[in-house]
Model the fold of this input.
Amino acid sequence: MSDNINKTGITIKCAACGEKFNDLTALATCSKCGGLLDITPAMPALCSEELQNLFDSRVSIATMRGSAAGRSGVWRFRELVLPISDADIVSHPEGNTPLLDRPVISKFAGVKDLLIKHEGFNPSGSFKDRGMTVAVTQAKRCGATAIACASTGNTSSSLAAYGAQAGIPALVMVPAGRITMGKLAQTVAYGARTLLVRGDFDDCLRLVRESSEKLGVYLANSLNPFRIEGQKTIMFELLQQLAWQSPDWVALPAGNLGNTSAFGKALREAHGLGLIKRIPRLLSVQASGAAPFAHDFANNFAKRTSVRAETIATAIRIGDPASWDRAVAAIRFTNGVVTSVSDEQIMQAKQVIDSSGVGCEPASAASVAGVRELVARGIIAPHERVVAMLTGHILKDPEKLLNTNDGHGHPAANAPIEIDATLSAVERVLQNATKA
Ligand code: F0G
Done:
């Protein structure tokens, strides 16, 4: 470890070999053994009630004015993330996402008390902004000259946005022909240098890791422990919205397993600090064509497997999840469950979520599909309180909203109707609608 004084009080340590790093490290993984790095925040010298009061005091009117960091739903919890001052922070702001209650979605899932936390309300339209504000802040702190990531589209959009804000050039690698139009357009428009790699996400991640090691660019994938620290705040904010009363279950879609890891870590810390009394069970949901983690769960995590991933939910089309070790710890700590759902189940859930007026991208709907599956299997009881995460905005994947089978790109369930510009034509449509 270098002699730099660690101003933030956080500890950065390799989970595999124990090597320690100072808090201005530009490394995303261990330089000695390549292992994943873990961050331990300095425990604040406040009791649980004082901490709750501190976090609560930063909500309401404070979320409407002041610095971006002061209004952020990530930096509100900075004592448990990275305790630095506003001037050092690259924030949009982000977070402060809503907790929604939609009876049609609850009914579909089969639980009375289902809440939806919609992370698609973040500035670039996905939960990735929570981790990216912290990773790009760290990139700035350690003087990075370029930042890079591999992505199925949301991480790249987020990195492009925060890189633009920080004035640090961003390089992204995405699988050629396998990224949605919304995500590609966003990434390019925010100004990231975009490489369409002939391969899948797992190839992109291998390539970006090599580039980071050999070419010295700052790696912003969720391997990077600062991403995990930011994503913990999804859970902190959810618990705060529930007045620090834990739900029974928290369901989320799972791909590269950064979020599963972050949720487990947040719960361990929140419980350790006395912010919550009870630990909710995590339900990580994969698409059945990209479900190595669900497979390993079924085998009690005896070994780690990988697959060639294929699913309609492009965001979670990942066959060799990078944060496997951390995610295993998260599932074990929370007595969690990992399951998989078919593309058909995902699209069925998405249709219900979309037509409720909430909307989400396909991968996000896996959480609700997973809850329905576990209720059907008798693992989640209908009276239990469940929170399902929606991770990305409906417009991230406009292609899936449209049925291109008719050759005109019209929505499948609710095709638009072309009419003459006359009142009688409108009247006819209205009459048919009321008859239906
Ligand atoms: N939901 C959405 C909308 C995502 O974009 C991702 C991951 C996940 C869920 C899965 O989260 O990887 O933490 O298990 N998207 C990454 C990307 C891989 O590149 O945007 P995870």
Observations:
- Residues 225-241 form the longest helix (17 residues).
- The pocket of F0G is lined by residues 126, 128, 151-155, 222, 253-260, 315-316, 361, 363-364, 391-392 (CB under 6 Å).
- The radius of gyration is 22 Å.
- Residues 228 and 262 are 5 Å apart (CA to CA).
